[in-house]
Predict the 3D structure of the following.
Amino acid sequence: MKTFEYNGQTLSYRDVYDLSQAPFKTIIGADVSKKIRASREWVDQLTSDDSKVVYGINTGFGVLSSKRISQADLKTLQINLIRSHCTGVGEPFSAELTRMMMLLRATCLMQGHSGVQQSTLELIFKMIELDLLPMIPCQGSVGASGDLAPLAHLALSLIGEGKVLFEGKIEKTSEVFSKLKLSPVTLQAKEGLALINGTNVMAALGAMALAESEVLLDAADKISALSVDTLKGSRAAFDPKIHKLKPHPGQILVANSLWKLLENSPIMNSHAGCGRVQDAYSLRCIPQVHGACRQTFDHAKAVIECEINSVTDNPLLFLEENEVISGGNFHGEAIAMAMDYLAIGMSELANFCERRIEKLVNPGSSNSELPVFLCMNESGLESGFMIAQVTAAALASENKTLCFPASVDSIPTNNDKEDHVSMGPIAGRKLLKIIENTRRVLAIELLCAGQALEFLRPLKTTAPLEELHSKLRTVVPKMNGDRVLSDDIEAAANLISHLNTL
């Protein structure tokens, strides 16, 4: 089991993603612990003075913020807040996303501006270590005032209520706590609001999307290079001299990658001087399109990693200035827009990929020597990859529909107190669906390009592309006649997910 020691360091999306893949043990650094205790002690001092009215500490919430709560009712206020905000619906988040949310909520609260008890944070980390995961429904957050509903379901487990996933079974939290001899948290003033008011669900979705899309961007360059070679395309369009004249970073990176991947290809050398002047855009413009997709990733990475390391609850404590300030760091507009932008990039990756698939199965559009639909024997009797291209078209088209930006929508909530919201969780969930669709479109291109290479034997492509083909053949055999392709597509998609680790 991994051990994660938190000393207030900056976390990358990769740190968060890697930790989320399995249970892990957490150590809270001494300096961080000191900040946590100091902020909690200050809240206790504030609540001991009945003359002071501080939002989120001894008042109601949202539109009820003008309602003063007596000291005797502060603990009841926290419990009521958690229970009343557990309105999530839909399927629960995955174990990986749930671990991410728990980690990110805790690291936000450990920065000393929230006033939570250290025992609350220690229980979160103990639950991660035991792989005791709250059941958090995926729908119900509008992305401001934070991810209230899903985080409330997380907080519900901390007080020993709701349901958890433990050892593969969904059980009552109270029963599992009793079995493991865990004590639920007794929430103190401000803790309930601190636990549920923040952007950590959005940030977790964003971190997951970054990890998955980064793999696809790298895979797309390799797979497209294989398509270029099997379609007997030209390497000239990837010449670095061209791209120095339009020096977008993503474009230069992709061009250099394809230039190297196709260097000294025996297939390419076999048709040197063939007289073809230019390839179709889906081959010739790979650096320009894949490069632009990479830059949506780069922008999203900068925004999401900022959010991961931010303090996003409200109100915030500033001990040195002796102030409690109510603001809006819980608003997810920045991360919502970044995820919407990345969604465009991932959708375009699939859209562009589908055009290469069409070239591979249609010799009429590509002037290739490949058989129609890559049929191994008699076309007509066989359909080959005909309908695989249709599936790619369906997925690419679905992505276009999903690309409508969630962040441009807003429905006022809480009696119009929260009159503009980000819809960030919706942006994140549909982004993950776009990534899933794109992975399968890339899988179909890999299957088609791999099959096309079989027709060009005994010629070989370059060493790195032959290695890619060999990896494909470990999970999907050469197609010698029509067969069910659904399993092949899933196997190739799974291979793509792990290409960077093979």
Notes: The chain has a mean pLDDT of 94.
